[in-house]
Amino acid sequence: MAISIDWQNKVVESTASILDLPVFHATLRDLEDDAAGAIHPVTHKWKALDLGGGAFMYQMDLNPYYSLKFPTPGNYSIKGNLNCIIVPVVGVYVERQTSLAYATTAIGGSGPSAADIAAAVLAAAQITPIHADSRMNNGAPIVGDGSIANPWRGVGVIP
Q1: Residues of 52-79 as b/e, b for ≥16 C-beta within 10 angstroms?
Q2: Could you give the CA distance from residue 101 to residue 38 in angstroms, rounded to a whole number?
Q3: Distances (CA, A) of 22 to 35, 63, 122, 159
Q4: Are 81 and 21 a contacting pair, CB within 8 Å?
Q5: At 58, is the secondary structure helix, strand, or coil?
Q6: What is the pLDDT of residues 37-80, one digit of tens each?
Q7: Are 70 and 89 in contact (CB under 8 A)?
Q8: What is the residue-wise DSSP string for 95-121?
């Protein structure tokens, strides 16, 4: 994805879909820091709501005097909570996919995969077994066969 900014006209141009909002944010901040961008106002406001467990929900608002333009005709997607004015261009169709949930991103570090987490849980369970024995309930035997006539219950509990 090539991102550029027409500083005089306050237009952010992207030649590809914006599928990773944190990467788009970082790219704009890099452009703001270079010699041409340093004399201009910042392009956007950025919020990262910490959901815990390493997950974030991102929100990006282009400042009102900036707009977004996809200069080449085609279909584009914006994934994430990006609020902005999109410059109309003949032959350009933009699909916005916003969410109240969060998405993973390629920027920053990377954590373990689902397979790595599953393997770690199984390895730990081999060392210290997870007790899930249905024959006891709080140390008391469970009686019954689970049928309607004879439901599972603790000893002394009338069905």
Answers
A1: eeeebbbbbebeeebbbbbeeeeebebb
A2: 34
A3: 22, 17, 33, 57
A4: yes
A5: strand
A6: 999 999 999 998 887 777 788 899 999 999 999 999 999 999 88
A7: yes
A8: EEE--SS----SSS-----HHHHHHHH
- Residue 150, CA distances (Å) to 77, 134, 142 in order: 57, 16, 12
Decide if pLDDT at 22 tops 70: yes
The one-character DSSP state at 71 is: -
Burial of 25 (0-12, 13-18, 19+ CB in 10 A): buried
Helices and strands in the chain: count of H runs, count of E runs: 2, 11
φ and ψ at 102, to 5 degrees? -115, 165
C-alpha–C-alpha distance, residues 68 and 76, integer Å = 12
Q: Which backbone phi and psi does 33 adopt, to 5 degrees?
A: -85, -15
Instruction: Read off the tokens for 22.
Output: 């944190």
Distance CA 6, CA 45 (A): 18
In angstroms, the CA 73 to CA 30 distance is 26
